[in-house]
Prior knowledge:
Blueprint: E1 2-7, E2 10-18, E3 24-32, E4 38-45, H1 48-64, E5 68-70
Antiparallel strand pairs: 1-2, 1-5, 2-3, 3-4
Amino acid sequence: MIVRWHKDQNYxxxxxxQDLMGDWIITQSWGxxxxxxxxxxxxxxxxxxxxxxxxxxINQQQRARGFQLNERREEQLWLDFG
Length: 82
């Protein structure tokens, strides 16, 4: 899942995914659209429910900071490597 927020030229993106070990990861990245440099962090969540709770908290924080949610549809691709 990818969720994007923006405020003026600033962006904040969160990716929530399960890694190959089965852990749920929250990756946050942020920066300014006019600059090449940005920052990021990774958080390992204990479960899917914990990851969703973190995502909800991040959403509340970004909206409180004046960021607006970008409404985009995402298509999940399932690849069969077997």
